[in-house]
Amino acid sequence: HVIAKHRTRNATQDPPAPTQEDVSCRESTGVCVSFVDTPALLSEAVQKLNALGKSHTVAIDCSGPPETLSLLKLATHGCTYVFDCLQLSAEGVCSGLAHLFETETITKLFHNAHQDAHALAVHGKVSELRGVFGTQLAAELMWGEVFVQLRTLVEKVGNQEYPADHQPGDRVQSRPLARAFVERSAVDSTLLLRYD
Q1: In 10 A of CB 55, how many CB atoms?
Q2: Residue 93: CB partners within 8 Å, gap ≥ 6?
Q3: How many CA atoms lie within 13 A of 92 on its CB side?
Q4: For the whole prediction, is pTM greater than 0.90?
Q5: 129, 109, 103, 101: which is closest to 196 by C-alpha?
Q6: Which residues, 6 or more positions from 194, have their beta carbon under 8 angstroms from its beta carbon?
């Protein structure tokens, strides 16, 4: 694993860069990815995320809906956290992130917010989700198209190509997860955060 220097916008706004060994920097994007699959790593990630400033934006993407919540990917400007909700339990991960979900002043970007919010409520037992901005709905209103995919948003608004090697693999249930898979799974939330 490679531990790389991390860019942050504002030291008071971003949580400290992750220090555990299970952190890597994806060569093609320079994005820090932290895989969270043990109670100790969950506790460490929650502590860092709870230190976010009141006026902050994160991007969230869920893998597995509607049948399950297998991975929860949460991007900050310092790092993208990939929470293994099968290894830790969806309810356990979401319980740890409850403060973030309930804080209205932290904007949560979702693409397909309806599906992800449903997964968080049903599988993660999230009762309150405040400060949500749905990029898919915004794109649908702007362009008059229905079910705008994130790939389309990235290519139209971001003026860049969606990564060719990205295959979400939402239904992957086998463990352990390969590091390359974890890094690829972080792509959507990382790209989404660029639109805050």
Answers
A1: 9
A2: 36, 42, 72, 83, 85, 124
A3: 18
A4: no
A5: 109
A6: 158
Q: DSSP labels for 24-82?
A: EEETTTTEEEEEE-SHHHHHHHHHHHHTS-SSEEEEEEEESTTT---EEEEE-SS-EEE
Question: In the 8-state DSSP scheme, what is residue 159?
Answer: -
**DSSP secondary structure code for residue 128 in this structure:** -
CA distance 60 to 188: 9
Assign 3-state DSSP to the chain and report helix, strand, coil percentages, each to 5.
Answer: 35, 20, 45
Measure the CA dihedral 61/64/68/74, to 10°. -20
Alpha-carbon gap, residue 157 to 171, rounded angstroms: 28
Tokens of 170: 């939402």
Which structure tokens are listed for 48? 């860092």
pLDDT tens, 170-191? Answer: 556 688 888 888 888 888 888 8
pLDDT of residue 4: 28
Handedness of CA 109, 111, 114, 118 (dihedral sign): negative
Angular region, 112: left φ>0, alpha ψ -120 to 50, beta rest: left
Pair of tokens at residue 47: 């502590």
User: Is residue 21 predicted with pLDDT exceeding 60?
Assistant: no
Chain-centroid distance, C-alpha 145: 25
